[in-house]
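User:
Hi there, any thoughts?
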Amino acid sequence: MTQLNTPYPSTAYLTGFLRSRGVDAVQEDLALKLVLRLFTREGLHAVLERVKAIPHKQRTPALRSFEEQFERYSDTIGPTIRFLQGRDPTLGHRICNRSFLPEGPRFDAIDAYTIGEEGDDPIGWAFGALGMHDRAKHLATLYLNDLADVLRDAVDARFQFVRYAESLAASQPTFDPLAEALAAPLNLVDELLCELTLEAIKAHQPRLVLVSAPFPGNVYAAFRIAQAIKAFDPSIVTALGGGFVNTELRELSEPRVFDYFDYVTLDTGERPLLALLEHLQGQRGPQRLVRTFVRDASTQQVKYTNWAEPDVPFAEVGTPTWDGLPLNEYLSLLDMLNPMNRLWSDGRWNKLTIAHGCYWKKCSFCDVSLDYIARYENATAEILVDRIEAIVKETGQTGFHFVDEAAPPKALRALAQELIKRKVQISWWGNIRFEKSFTPELCQLLSDSGCIAISGGLEVASDRLLALMKKGVSVEQVAKVTRSFTEAGVLVHAYLMYGFPTQTVQDTVDALEYVRQLFENGCIQSGFFHRFACTVHSPVGQNPDEYGVTLQPLPPVSFAKNDVAFIDPTGVDHDAMGAALKKAIYNFMHGVGLESDVRSWFDVKVPRPTVPRNRITKALA
């Protein structure tokens, strides 16, 4: 599963493209259907039977709570799903009174939100004036998370809403863990997924099935889907693609993958699929496939074929279509009390790309050597607004998430001007670089065109490390750009990073001081610290000497290859710093602790910041 609030865009793009080329293409979101099949009265009864089979002494608090309150779960699951789908908003009043939903261990987290005075309303402190509907949505999300814990403890220990069984695939050098899981008897979730797969196959009667696996947490289910198809009708051709494949399976040599998938394609899918379709129709030989892995029938060895053929230009890929996806059945969740994170999980967003690839493509932590970053192509503002108008007409939804790695400022300016010229009213958000091109005038123009939020990488908030990262920005520049967006009424989220090569404890403390000042000066309203991970496709992974680190050797790889461990001579225990950074930024977002010394957030002794406490104020002045 990816997100439950909106469709992942890959199938919409490919369906629209294939139809524009005369191919009879349909799409299904089996992830959403799986959740909606599980979270019903009948689904919960099936889960209860699994719970009862577990000895009492081995039952977790989540399982005990579920069994004790089962009748309430059974009675409330249908109405709660409808509420999260937006079909029954008045139920929010009953959810908010805390007597309608059964509450399991996840509700204990509410008490951890606040560091305020004793007697404060914890959820009120967290939500402030956001209102009844948001409170109800958060409580309903906790309720679903309780049920997810029950599924994890009683049905499948790997169950998660987003990262389902990702350890079987993420950077797994061999196929063995996944093969063992696929050979095991089906559990309840597997059974339901296979049922849904066969229902779709019987309804559409396809000859070719494409499965998109964007993330490691989609891979196990992707193989279960293919397994069910091959068991039902081995003649149906199956092909695997998506972000996980494009990133981690570039050196694939494992023949067993092709017991499930006949073809595995890399990178942007349009050209490989056109070649594959021609091949299946007898119009193209196997040696002319594009970016495609196959298993040789005679040697059983994996072969990679990449006939030199240009990709379909971004301006000609057509308009994505959501036809066939049940847009009124997605669930708007509110799990994190972070104003930017909620945009990812709350609301139905039409996902659209302004350009292919990244116009900057220099950041040393990024997979700049891969096609989805390296090949930059754009389309005219007129074409983009044509696509936007067609999507609004089809979906009835005017919210857009531009999913570019970094939307180009020049393209955004042209897009905003075209939206305003045609009087197209949409709300949109996306990712940018905090570069000087985003002047106060441009920020206001983007706001006038419907921009409600932007996110961008501040990363380590250290000029030395930003230069090492080749971000092409400085902390002072970030302050000016983010302040301009804020003054234009646009929510600003900062991606932050810790654990970058040669980052010292002093660097981390100074970075947190910069972040405190950015919140204090109203430059950013949201942020999140991520732990740096080195990948084999990034400049750090390809040229570690330039960054002062030594890569640890990888085992022989026949399946997935991405993350690579490294030795940093600074010897800093970055994991020990992470909890303090996340705690601090959570409180900064709620206006708490902005006057305090940032050292107070750490459980261990750290040096005082070397950054003057008025550095950002001076930069803005």
